[in-house]
Amino acid sequence: MIELQDIRKGFGDKEILKGVSTIMEPGKVNLIIGASGSGKTVMMKCIVGLMGVDEGKVLYDKQDFTAMDEKEKKVIRQEIGMLFQGSALFDSMTVEQNVMFPLEMFGKGTLKEKKARVAECLERVQLKEAAKKFPAEISGGMKKRVGIARAIVLNPKYLFCDEPNSGLDPQTSLLIDKLITELTQEYNITTVINTHDMNTVMESGDHIVYMYQGQKQWEGSNKDIVFSKDQKLNDFIFASEFLREAKEMRQLELFKDGKWREQLKKEQGEQ
Amino acid sequence: MEFKFFYHFGNFLLMLKGMFSRPENMKMYWKQFMQQCVDIGVGSFGIVFIISLFMGGVTTLQTAYQLVSPIIPKSTIAQVVRDTIILEFAPTLTCIVLAGVIGSKIASELGNMRISEQIDALEIMGINTKGYLIAPKIMAAVLMIPVLVAIAGFLGIWGGKEAGELSGIISSEQFMQGLRQEFKAYNVFFAMAKSYTFGFIIASVSAYYGYNVTGGALEIGKASTTAVVVSCVLILFMDYALTAILL
């Protein structure tokens, strides 16, 4: 579980994160969504420690990551896997070597065991045939899958994905989303995704944090989002006529399923 | 301007300090070090070979052109060539060229890794990127550049001998005789001291500019150019300082 407690971050006079608090639970796909410049990338960088916070705490399973020294942070970092927007694969290494790298650096066991683990991870992302290829020889979607394989090779407790669908076609995007969701549930990982992609929001968002101008504007699940009355969130998520119609259809579906009762109860509870 | 100098100098020192931590996996660090030794040493051998030969040849021809007095023995040409190459050309000229070859490679490699988030990926894994990426480059440069300078010295003198013989200025025997006259081993020590210093400058300055790139492809190019320019200026400055101190 990752807990953010009132985190603040600024650059010079400009405050980017204005006190964000939330809890990200294991086994769930936690999404950070928001327009460009809303602070979601800074927030993710603060969570993983690529940037320090000015105020507030980031807790990994109740351990204060922000108060740790480098040595302690290293221990936590070995439990983190991250998929970068541009995949961040090492150009001079083959797909297999890329996935092997964290294992070689930190993994225990024999070379045979490590190779077997790499093969298992590549099999999991359906890329066994590309093992000997270099990153320059594979497609964007394949690079993302290699990035996922590298991120999960050490069995992380926390998985971070920075815009995993950017630059991918809708079909490949769905494949990546499905893969991340399956891995999250299979290994009970706390997954945090920073995304713009509405398919990801509607299909995978077990827990969604909507950021607006450095603040948490809305929080809920992909079931709640269709009933949300937050104007800013609705303007962001259902920006086009097509998406507004899709939202109404989804509401109807949920009404048919009887899930509207849960929503009604929730709203009454809030009042 | 001075504040920018202190800003960069302070950051540079912090970068060097950041390199010192216990390696996460010594085997991987060793592998990286050996890879850098190959890249820097073997990768630069070709250019060192070419410039050294011509440097020696040109030195012989120019020295002969200036020493026209019949009372000066021809073996003096070899003496002048030897000392010029050992004291100045092999360490300084070779390192100026290596600053361009190795410096731009290090700066662009690290800059590209920074821009494409590969350095962030290593950080996330819990690897000390300064220790893993920069320290092996500096150590490899400090080890391999003196070797290249020593090779440049030998090749330069050999090139000088061949040029002298081919042009009919000085015979091989006269050249060899001149080489042995008044040879000071201290000059070799001086050349090595310079090459260690220059090796450190080339790798560390280039790594600093590459590691701290922000922006895109254009900035990688700018960082490479700045790394080479700053390395060359520092090499020339340290060349003067070491000559004033050690000779």
From TrEMBL, chain A:
Residue stretches making up the ABC transporter domain:
2-238
**Full protein name:** Phospholipid/cholesterol/gamma-HCH transport system ATP-binding protein
Query: What InterPro entries does the record tag this protein with?
Result: AAA+_ATPase, ABC_transporter-like_ATP-bd, ABC_transporter-like_CS, P-loop_NTPase
Alphabetized SUPFAM superfamilies for the sequence: P-loop containing nucleoside triphosphate hydrolases (SSF52540)
Keywords in UniProt for this one? Answer: ATP-binding, Nucleotide-binding, Transport
What PROSITE patterns would the database entry show?
A: ABC_TRANSPORTER_1 (PS00211), ABC_TRANSPORTER_2 (PS50893)
In which domain of life is the source organism classified? Bacteria
Give GO MF terms, alphabetically: ATP binding; ATP hydrolysis activity
Which species does this protein come from? Answer: Chitinophaga ginsengisegetis
Task: Extract the Pfam families matched here.
Answer: ABC_tran
PANTHER family of this UniProt entry? INTERMEMBRANE PHOSPHOLIPID TRANSPORT SYSTEM ATP-BINDING PROTEIN MLAF, PROTEIN TRIGALACTOSYLDIACYLGLYCEROL 3, CHLOROPLASTIC
UniProtKB/TrEMBL annotation, chain B:
Keywords noted in UniProt:
Membrane, Transmembrane, Transmembrane helix
Q: Write out the GO cellular component annotations.
A: ATP-binding cassette (ABC) transporter complex
What protein is this chain from?
Phospholipid/cholesterol/gamma-HCH transport system permease protein
Which InterPro entries does the record cross-reference, listed alphabetically? Permease_MalE
Q: Which Pfam families does the record cross-reference, listed alphabetically?
A: MlaE
tRNA-binding as a keyword of this entry, yes or no, is no
**Membrane spanning segments where?**
6-21, 42-65, 85-104, 138-158, 188-211, 223-246
A GO MF annotation of the entry reads: phospholipid transporter activity
Organism whose genome encodes this protein: Chitinophaga ginsengisegetis
